[in-house]
Amino acid sequence: MKFDPNDKEYFFNEEMVLSPEGEQALRQSFGEYRRSVLNNPSDWFGTMMKQDKDSPRYFVESPVFQWIGRACILGGVLATVIAVLNKSNMESYRFYLSLGLIASISIGLYMLVKIIGYLMADKTVYTEEVSATCIGYWRTMDGGGDDILFPVTSPVFEYHYNGQKIQACYDTFEVTKDAKIPLGSTTTIRISPNAPARVKGFHKKLLSTPIVFVIICAIATGALTYFLLA
Asked: What pLDDT does 46 receive?
């Protein structure tokens, strides 16, 4: 994730261990950012409506897994169309059970592909190792309402790749207010050779939502299949 010092969503400083003053400044900075978003709902809505191909959830899947996932959803749409065309030959309750089964299978497969994509990110996306220097720390707040916001952190790395100087952070930040890499130290990071400002981060936190969906869809698929065959 490319480091942009002008991005108001994030707070930059050089404290590895965030002081109480630093944490207060972080929360104040994020509060100002969120108020600016709420005061410009049209900009916020436009950003939410467009497909953000720069987001970590999209990026840690290689193009192969992205296309397989789309194929799962497309298969569900086609199966739904076929079911609708055959509705007159089916009992009403069986028709709706069939639609539920199609949705369960297609969504479950789509989420399963996402899980595989995240687990395979090291081998399919972040395939290059480079030496990088920590020049500071970038933080923001994550979560829902004011009562459940929590800080997430990434070092800001500076490194060279193909003759280009790059400043970047992890694609997915660690859920913590304190960093683990000392300021000025050098470490090895994994980047994408196709997008060298993309740095492998903490992708395990992305797994929880698709895992829950896979479990729910598997249970729903089993139950709906049982009732359809009964």
From this structure: 58
Query: If you ran DSSP here, which 8-state letter would residue 87 be given?
Result: G
Q: At what angle do helices 41-49 and 20-38 cross, to 10 degrees?
A: 90
pLDDT in tens, 128-186: 999 999 999 999 998 765 567 889 999 999 999 999 999 999 999 999 999 999 999 99
**Long-range Cβ pairs for the range 10-15 (8 Å, 24+):** 10/138, 10/139, 10/140, 11/138, 11/139, 11/140, 12/136, 12/137, 12/138, 12/139, 12/156, 13/136, 13/137, 13/139, 14/136, 14/137, 14/183, 15/137
Q: Which two tokens stand for residue 71?
A: 């194929």
Q: Do 172 and 202 meet the contact criterion of CB atoms below 8 Å apart?
A: yes
Which residue in 213, 154, 161, 142 sits closest to 178, CA to CA?
A: 154
A 10 A CB-CB count for 33 gives: 17
**What is the model's pTM?**
0.80
Whether residue 69 contacts residue 114, with contact meaning beta carbons closer than 8 Å, is answered with: yes
